[in-house]
UniProtKB/TrEMBL annotation:
Native source organism of the sequence: Dactylosporangium matsuzakiense
Keyword field contains Transmembrane: yes
Residues in DUF4142 domain copies: 100-234
UniProt keyword terms in alphabetical order: Membrane, Transmembrane, Transmembrane helix
Domain of life: Bacteria
Alphabetical list of InterPro entries matching this protein: DUF4142, Ferritin-like
Residue stretches spanning the membrane: 20-39, 268-288
The name this protein goes by in its record: DUF4142 domain-containing protein
Length: 300
């Protein structure tokens, strides 16, 4: 009969000749235990945290979309000092603040510095009563929005201009120089509608991608205001839509703006390593069982 015992050795019970490799199962369990938390952290970007760790800080000011109510913003609290920030970024208690965030606040401030006066000018120079109504609403909304952008900028330490850009001042001069009330109505509607469409692209981009919670909340207010003003200006009925810039496809925008910012989370390394350990241990265990089952049990 076949025997696996060395020649001359005393036979041993089969159950003690080779121990089952239960340690492989322990290694597999450890690998899974290491991988699962890392996978969760990698997928969430490490942002899953306790709600109790956040503090509520007000961004006081006028919310033109919701009435005269201060906007409540969740502050992120102290930031990790070891986190490297891209060039041009600074860390605030509301999260990273980038160059485009600062540009956004500047643009909103400058918009109020010329659109408010344009709305006031419409009260004396417009021919159409609808133009006067829209002008009053724009002036009122920008007064409140200007108060809020100054409050937000003060909290973030962003300096703001105190006069419109040269281009915006040129539009005001063009309105003021209109030869007739009807010409004023045409310049008012088309200049303001084109300007709102241009700034809407920046505002929506900030709302979609900013890393700063205070800026994100204020951008939502700005999105609502810009949409409201575009609708009001179009209600006048003399906007030349053919003169507005044509929409750009998403593919073209991505080609111009570059690829999205993809960040590889370091916990993904631990996730892959843990899964590899678990799979390897399970495979080794199954191979051992298969090889043992194929062997003939010796007779005693």
């Amino acid at each position: 009969m076949y025997s696996v015992e060395p020649e001359g050795a005393a036979p041993r019970p089969w159950s003690r000749r080779r121990a089952w490799p239960w340690w492989l199962l322990i290694v597999a369990a450890a690998g899974i235990g290491m991988a699962v938390p890392s996978v969760r952290t990698a997928l969430t970007g490490g942002q899953a945290g306790s709600a109790d760790a956040k503090q509520t800080a007000p961004a006081a000011g006028y919310n033109a979309a919701q009435g005269n109510n201060p906007v409540q913003v969740a502050a992120t609290g102290p930031q990790a000092t070891g986190t490297a920030l891209p060039g041009g970024y600074s860390m605030t208690s509301f999260g990273p603040l980038g160059p485009v965030d600062r540009e956004f606040l500047t643009k909103v401030r400058q918009a109020g510095l010329w659109e408010g006066p344009a709305g006031t000018m419409a009260q004396t120079k417009a021919a159409d009563e609808r133009v006067k109504e829209v002008g009053r609403q724009l002036a009122t909304d920008h007064k409140g929005l200007d108060q809020q952008v100054r409050q937000v900028s003060a909290q973030l330490g962003v300096p703001l201009p105190d006069k419109p850009s040269d281009e915006q001042q040129g539009w005001l001069n063009e309105m003021n120089a209109a030869a007739t009330p009807q010409q004023f109505d045409d310049v008012f509607s088309n200049r303001l509608r084109a300007a709102h469409g241009k700034v809407f692209a920046l505002v929506s981009q900030i709302r979609s991608g900013t890393r700063n919670e205070l800026v994100r909340t204020f951008a939502q207010t700005a999105v609502n205001v810009v949409m409201k003003h575009m609708t009001l200006l179009e209600s006048i009925g003399n906007v030349n839509f053919a003169a507005l810039p044509e929409p750009v496809s998403g593919a073209s925008s991505a080609a111009k703006g570059g690829a999205p910012d993809a960040t590889f989370h370091p916990d993904a390394i631990w996730a892959v390593a843990g899964l590899a350990v678990a799979i390897g241990a399970i495979a080794a265990f199954r191979m051992f069982r298969g090889s043992r089952g194929s062997r003939r049990r010796p007779a005693y």
